[in-house]
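To close the chapter, one final illustration. This time we ask the reader to focus less on the individual chains and more on the assembly as a whole: which components sit near each other, and how the overall shape emerges from the parts.
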Amino acid sequence: MKYDLVCGMETHIELSTLSKLFCKCRVNFGDSPNENCCPICIGAPGTLPILNKQAVRYAIRMGLALNCKINSFSKMERKCYFYPDLSKNFQTSQNDLPLCSGGFVQLESGKKIRINHIHIEEDAGKIKRHSDGIYVDYNRGGVPLIEIVSEPDISSADEAQEYIEKLQLFARYLKISSARMQEGSIRCDVNVSVKPSNSNELGTRVEIKNMNSISFISKAIAYEYERQSDALEGGLPIEQETRRFNEASGMTESMRNKENASEYCYFPEPDLLSICVTEKELDDIKKEMPKLFSERYDYYLNLGISEKFARLIIKYVNVSDYFDEVIRDCKVPDKIASIIVGPIFSYLKTEVEKEKFDISVSTDDLKYLGNLISEDKISNSNAQKVVSKCLENGFDLKEEVKNFISDDSFDLEKICKDVLSQNTEAVKDYKNGKEKAIQALVGKVMAQTKGRANPEKILSIMKSLI
Amino acid sequence: MSRSLILKTHKALVSKKVSCLELVNWYLSEIKKSDLNAFITVTEESAIESAKKVDDKIRNGEKIGILEGIPMSLKDNFSTKGIRTTCASKMLENYYPVYDSTVYDVLKKAGCILLGKANLDEFAMGSSNETSYFGPVKNPHDKTRVAGGSSGGACASVASGLATFSIGSDTGGSIRQPASFCGIVGFKPTYGAISRYGLIPLASSLDCVGPLTISVEDASILFDLLSFYDPKDERCSPIKRKPTLNCLENEIKGLKIGVPTNCFYGSDEETYNAVENAVKFYEKLGASVSFFEFPELDLSMPIYCVLGRAETASNMSRFDGIRYGYKYDGPYKDIDDLMTRTRSIAFGEEVKRRILVGSYVLSAGHKALYKKSLNLRNMVIDSFNKRFTEFDVLMMPASPTTAFGFNYAEGDPLKMQLADICVVPANIAGLPAISVPCGYDSNNLPIGLQILGKQWSDDLIFNVANVYEKENFCAKIIGGVQYEV
Amino acid sequence: MVNREEFLKLCKLSRLEFTDDEIPKLMEGMDSIINFGNKVSECKDSSIATDCDVSFVHRELSNIEYEKCIRDELLSGGTNRDGFFFVKNHSN
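The assembled structure is written out below.
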């Protein structure tokens, strides 16, 4: 019996606003425990929340990018449960009327993963277990989150991976979050069920939580698919539960059975006004949206950049931003692309480094280099060498490039004539059809100019002389 | 003669009839002597220090503000930085806030001197000030009777000359009912007029801050001081406030008064008579009075029971011993056990009861009840709005009875809750309402006349109440600090 | 109305515990309030939108200019008035 995977995701993304969702405390990772706290986010009695409008704007950006309907009227609600990382023992979130409804994420295959809704909520603090007890750090408490809830449209681990990566790209391009799994600024919980391929009835859902890398999520889904298919094949029921992924064993396992904690007692937050988004505000947000990767991809292709290179560049928003800056008024965008994908990417070995894209070669430097290329003053290969050298040694590019520039002070034509006259045998060979012969002649000219001359230029001069 | 105690006191200070230090010391000694149990914390040192500063100013010939050097009490559910704030609960018995409520901050800026934090029903839950962890408050008019609640201590302190004025909170009548029991003026503004930031909440969509005073003029001064837009409270309205002090003496000829007949259900005869007489007084001045049936009024209390307790249960959830407040110090199994023991030990019975009812109403199977109450609340608001196209103000008793004895409800929470039957409607509809003394019963217990208006008619309420008080002033200060200027 | 099982569930939900002795009286007290609150169920739904915020009523910003409020005076730590005369036509 063949089984289909039915998978939905709940993705939390931490917004990179300056302040928390309901108070003016800084949002900053890595500060000492409870440093970024105030009476409001600690839940001191009598304090009141004030909604951070920038967080709402960021959330709307995501909603617009994912083709959602932005609700002009939405409510904050209290989600009530007791846990030490919640300073008020309720989380102020949304339920009945979220900020964004509907929408979709389109995969490369053209398949659309539908979005049920996006809502904003506050994050909880962090619980740390030490040998002498349990400690709580409320720095993270109150940080704004968006939760993106998908419909169960995902049907393979690969699709799941692509979906998350797309969400990451969106978040980064919209400049609303760093969306890094290792940092916890993007987290995914997965709901997995299987059903027989010839049936329309959905199976029992199992929730898998606490996976902190995309590859683990992928593995967990794959394992869970096997586990559930095997169970159904063997006539065993699937228990509705929450499981975690064991990285060492590569299997999912049942989490300690909490009592049916899903009694959240949602009710409207009485301390906050409803969120109203006017047409004008929506227009303003649309105007300030950064260009998304799909737009940039099309633009790059129009400039003559190969699909492969374009895909590589848009994969990292910092790279794309950098690239966009360099190629403004640039005549050789394809050459710049090669430089980035070539020496620069070779130098930045890890994904994290590529994401950060913190290099000593500035956009001005590369613009300058681009101009030299377009004026034929430096060859492509030399340009790439220059960049490599600067990255490895921290040289100043404008200085370093002087070592490679074609010196037009020498008369290339004359040198070519000289070489031709000194190598009549080679010339005869070339005339008789030996292509390689001319390469040797070019080489001789290069030797004479100490490698500075542009080999393509030499070749064309020679051909015209011959 | 001005009936404003604030002005009398200010004049006494400015004319140097009494120094601020003498005044404050007088209040402090009366507080020590009093057995009403109106105060939980007395801030003796800081009061004396502040008094000295005021005296310095006066000595130097500097002009002082009308509220400068005026001694006040503050209901102990207002956050005061560095000054113990208990909410009359074991849970916060040793809680010292790290920030000031907006209201206290402004009162300080105006120069008021805090004598102490006034007793209340625990976490403002109650109508008699009997649920306080620190013991009940006695009524100054008859110590065998309650002061009312939940602002019992605040009202008793003003009525017994232990403070010039007080500031309380009103969620289901907690300013107006005890004010009527103690024979003073209690004002609940339009919801959203005064900032709630720093008021430890009972039911967030119902809580209001308001003054407790000897005269309407004093309440008006305090309202004008405290009513402004505070961005720290999203529910505080940015609407432009109309000053009330300038309207006190306006003519009320042609005023249309409505009296809902069903509000007298369960009333004492003497209460009924006093209110009827008060209404007749207005008629003599040229107002028109109509008695009418107001059935939607009766829905207010059931709605309050549902909505109020739902919000309360959630507001109480942050008290778990982990960040502040009482923490169980014995052995426990796990975090849930720690929280459960802490809350079960440190919360009083009425608090726990309300949390349970609130949780019931919010839980999955009973959501319909909560949603229905929200829905009907809008209907009550709408029906009031319709009435206020016919009438300018409504009048009724502040309480069906005068102050009852201790243990009147005999442990029946509904019986106690129904003591607020006349005052809860104004909370449900967010309306401004005042209780002003209108007589005494045969036991010399005060009776309060309640006047309600539509939202943002606070100035009219003060006007109408002042006009009555001018010819019928009957508030008394029983013992404590008294002087004539 | 509330049976013991549900009562205990609510206790767990609110992190409260009681002795067996305390429970009957508490349940009775809860019942009386809940029964009373249930009166709302006897009414028809109102047609006024459930999502109408009480605060919406307060949202209109009035453009009327009012006379100056006493607050500035009260906060300024000094007064130019002689103390008595707050109210129009007020006599000694």
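Helices of chain C lie at 4-13, 22-37, 71-75. Residues 81 and 88 of chain C are 13 Å apart (CA to CA). With these observations in hand, you are ready for the problems at the end of the chapter.
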